[in-house]
Structures are given as structure tokens and as C-alpha cells.
Amino acid sequence: xxxxxxxxxxxxxxxxxxxxxxxxxxxxxxxxxxxxxxxxxxxxxxxxxxxxxxxxxxxxxxxxxxxxxxxxxxxxxxxxxxxxxxxxxxxxxxxxxxxxxxxxxxxxxxxxxxxxxxxxxxxxxxxxxxxxxxxxxxxxxxxxxxxxxxxxxxxxxxxxxxxxxxxxxxxxxxxxxxxxxxxxxxxxxxxxxxxxxxxxxxxxxxxxxxxxxxxxxxxxxxxxxxxxxxxxxxxxxxxxxxxxxxxxxxxxxxxxxxxxxxxxxxxxxxxxxxxxxxxxxxxxxxxxxxxxxxxxxxxxxxxxxxxxxxxxxxxxxxxxxxxxxxxxxxxxxxxx
Length: 336
What we know:
By secondary structure, the protein is α/β, with parallel strands linked by helices. 47% of the residues lie in helices and 14% in strands. It contains 13 helices and ten strands. It has helices at 2-18, 20-33, 44-61, 71-74, 97-108, 123-126, 146-163, 166-173, 175-183, 189-193, 207-223, 259-271, 299-318, and strands at 37-41, 65-67, 85-90, 112-117, 130-133, 199-204, 226-231, 248-251, 275-278, 287-288. The strands form two sheets. Strands 2-1-3-4-5 form a five-stranded parallel β-sheet, with helices on both faces. A five-stranded parallel β-sheet has the order 7-6-8-9-10, with helices on both faces. The relative contact order is 0.15.
């Protein structure tokens, strides 16, 4: 897992260089379709990548995005009316039967379909109108790291070319250097803060909420810790009730319009006695973690997960686990 985290900047540089034609073709197809809505099809880390793209598309294109449950087709046998939409299916292996079935259904029912996959000869790719190969190389760790980042970048490359968004495309070009910096951000102060704790909250808003969801999953997968991801806007309602003395909170703030509100909630929870860590300089009581700023409100949140991956791999080993081989899990899950 550590090796694959460190490979991420190079993998993203390769994707951006070799995938350029895929982005251009896919972007042109989206402009021609001019979708009224977009649906995403994914599970696990891929679904978190899709959530990131939901925020990016809604913020940059003003087009609503909804996640579709693959079981609608595979278990319940229902078809959805998807005329004048696009469907983005994300799967590292491209083999899960329910993801493939939902994508095939979307295409049958009028959607322009895209596959984001690390396996371009997979059933998912064969079922889609367009495929963007992640070009991440083999990922041996059960916990997805570089392929998660590549899935988001593949989607952002598609979006940037669809909208002909020069600022986003420029931010993507410089992203490998930002991610290299993110790999070396030292989050070790958080390691000791989690000793003797089996539960924590991970907070975010906007694209950073998708990153919080991915981080919470990795806490569970690699460390056996019960982590819950919440919007910083939601946690202050019911969930804040259990935040008391030294309850750990990781607040993932990006350099975007939501940063101030995330910092405000972090301070509020610290005032309740929580041990709060935040990726922002806009905090007094919460403890600051270093971050690699990308200079763009969308890509900034993505860099946070690379710093987190390096941290959680070390946390897993500190707690006596093997992050490469977590119990009860396997790399490819073929859900029906």
C-alpha cells in the first residue's frame, strides 16, 4: 500500500499524458449530448470517486448528478428512463456484474455511457460508449489508493474537456507535482491521538466530503476503526451529541468556499472537548495538519487523500495490522 501511495503522482502524470485523446473524445461527446442530468454507477471507493465528480460537475457545469443503485437492475429488475442523460460507471476491475448490468441498462435506455476503469478490456468497458483507462498499473493492495485518485482525475479530465474549462485543465496538468508534495505531508501527530480509540468522525463539505467518505472507509478497511464521515453542516445536529472529552475528529478542509464553515465547526467541536485535527490554517483550538495546496478549488480536495493514505498505512501498522491484507476482504468484489 505504501509503495502504491508513493506511485500515485507518477500514475497521474501517465494518465494525463496518455489519456488526453480519451478526454478530448469523451468531452466532445458530452458537449454534443448536452445532458440534462448525469447518473453515476459505482460501489465502494469508486462510489466515493463518483461523489467527488458529482460535486465537480454540479459546481462547474450546473448539471445535477445522482448516484444510481446497481441493484435497481441486478436484484429488482427495473429499468430507468435515461434519455438525454450521461452515465459514468467507475470500477477498477470492470468486472462486477451489477455495475456492468446497470451500465448496459443505462445504455439501452438512452444514456450516453462512460467507463472509468483500470481494465480497458473488461466487460464494463465493452458495455460502454466510451472508456477512459486509468493507466495506473497493477494495484496489489486490497485498499484502493492510486486507482481512487486516478478515477477522480479521469472524471475531471472528462469534465474539463466537456466544459473546455481552461482553469481546471491547467490545475490537472500541475496536479502530479502537488500530489508529490502531498505524499510527504507529515500527519504523524494524528497517530498518537488515535491510540486507545476505536471510533472517530471524519468531516468535509463539497468535494472534501467525498474525500471524508473515502478516508472513513480506509480507517475501517486497514485499521479496524469505526469511522463515520459527515458533512460539517450535518454533524452539528444529532451526531454532535456523542462528541465529548478527547473524541477524535479529522476535519478535511480544502481551499474553497466551504473552508471557513468547516473550520468553524471544527472549533465548535473542539470546544465540546473533542481532539480535532484540521487541514486548514483557519483554526485556533483545532490542531493543524499540513496540506499541499493545488491552487484550484476542485483539485485541492483531492490532494488531501494522498496525504491521508500515507498516514493511514502507518496507523494500520502501528495498531499491529497488515494494511496490504486486511481480514475478510478481497481485491475484486463481484457483487450481483
